[in-house]
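Sequence, please.
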């Protein structure tokens, strides 16, 4: 077997065998608490709870504000590379706003337009490689007379179905198969 074929097989093996991230810990809050998450400072007018219900399983995160302020839950995770995204389900109620972000260092991408209906949102991870990323969901209110809440559930890594990427992978598999076949003949 030629060196080029060995490299080809090794590359495919690495692509298929290596995980591209460390799992989001307790992304659906099914431990019924914030295991794996960090929670911002709480006070008499804001609190973060894991409560029954949600979009996945039996529990979800609920951030409740009774006055102006903000409160977040966050988690770091390691991401290697690949056509993946961080997906989550969220919705807000009352006077609350929310922002959900994923970032490394200072480069961030965010979702801000949450509505009252549980909806799945996606943040593209394919631009990152070999680094620890952070995900945070922050709920805020503007005035001291405001009251509102944000809900979060089912935070997970999903594959982005990009036709171009799949085509490249398919082309790579075909190329390797042809090279191996030629070496056999
Ligand atoms: Ca859940």
């Amino acid at each position: 077997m030629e060196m080029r074929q060995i490299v080809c097989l090794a590359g495919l093996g690495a692509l298929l065998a290596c995980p591209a991230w460390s799992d989001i810990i307790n992304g659906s809050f099914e431990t019924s608490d914030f295991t794996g998450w960090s929670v911002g400072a709480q006070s008499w007018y804001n609190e973060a709870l894991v409560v029954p219900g949600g979009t996945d399983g039996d529990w979800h995160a609920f951030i409740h504000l009774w006055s102006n302020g903000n409160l977040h839950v966050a988690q770091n995770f390691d991401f290697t590379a690949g056509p993946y995204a961080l997906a989550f389900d969220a919705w807000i109620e009352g006077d609350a706003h929310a922002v959900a972000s994923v970032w490394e260092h200072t480069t961030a991408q965010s979702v801000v337009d949450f509505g009252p209906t549980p909806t799945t949102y996606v943040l593209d991870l394919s631009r990152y490689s070999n680094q620890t990323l952070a995900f945070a969901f922050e709920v805020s209110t503007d005035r001291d007379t405001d009251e509102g809440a944000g809900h979060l559930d089912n935070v997970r890594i999903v594959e982005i179905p990009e036709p171009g990427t799949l085509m490249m992978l398919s082309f790579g598999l075909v190329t390797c198969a042809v090279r191996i076949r030629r070496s056999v003949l």
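The pocket of calcium ion is lined by residues 28-30, 54, 56-57, 59-60, 153-154 (CB under 6 Å).
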